[in-house]
Amino acid sequence: MIALQDPTPRLTADQYLLWEESQVDRHEYVDGQIYAMSGGTVNHGEIAANCIAVLKGQLQGSGCRVLTSDVKVRVLRSNAFLYPDVSVTCDPEDRSAEQFISAPGLIVEVLSPGTEAYDRGDKFKLYRRAISLQNYVLVSSREVGVEVYERDQVGRWIFVAYGPGETIRLNGVGPKGAIEVAIEALYENIQF
């Protein structure tokens, strides 16, 4: 999905939330500006669904929530509401959230040609300001490849790339402190 600038005038966060409830399409909000979100490909959707299935299985019974691209993430320090492809929150305050979550520990974006620059650049810059975020995961939709950006103990982002046959390790996720995922599980039924 890619954010396309919409000529709607600047809104406050509260105005945006009220306005967004009545919209058919989804829109992201960044510092008063509203951006329409476009749809994705079949591979994009299936990879996102695979990510959700794998994460749900790993985190079942943990109290963590694994959420689809229909759920907004609020990044207060960026004055933004964004729609990741997949998000995970284990924060107790997010358990009762209805409109958006505020403390994601993991965000997954499935890359496609139209979104890759945004997901790697401006969107990641906004997400990095979420204090709770421990892992930002970029999953290719053109080849088997996953990139993980993990926040270390002093707040630096450490990059690890994974390819065919490898196991992805996501530290700081769930009650056990880490989960491991075979990369092939994210690409089940995907043909390039």
What does this structure look like?
With 192 residues, the protein is α+β, with helices and mostly antiparallel strands. The chain has one domain: Alpha-Beta Complex (tt1808, chain A). The chain has five helices and 14 strands. The strands form three sheets. It has a six-stranded mixed beta sheet. Strands 4-7-9-10-11-12 form a six-stranded mixed beta sheet. A two-stranded antiparallel sheet has the order 13-14. A hairpin with a 4-residue loop joins strand 5 and strand 6. It is globular, with a radius of gyration of 16 Å. It starts with a strand and ends in a 6-residue tail after the last helix. The relative contact order is 0.15. The mean pLDDT is 93.
List keywords for this structure.
192 residues; alpha+beta; 6-stranded mixed β-sheet; tt1808, chain A
Mean pLDDT: 93
Strand count: 14
Structural class: alpha+beta
CATH class division: Alpha Beta
Query: What gap, in angstroms, lies between the N and C termini?
Result: 19 Å
Q: How would a textbook summarize the main sheet?
A: 6 strands, mixed
Treating each run of at least 4 consecutive H or I residues as one helix, how many helices?
5
CATH level 4 superfamily: tt1808, chain A
The CATH topology is what? tt1808, chain A
The low-confidence parts are: none
Helical fraction: 10-25%
User: From the alpha-carbon coordinates, what is the Rg to the nearest angstrom?
Assistant: 16 Å
**Strand residue percentage:** 25-35%
CATH architecture: Alpha-Beta Complex
- Order of the strands making up the biggest sheet: 1-3-2-6-5-8
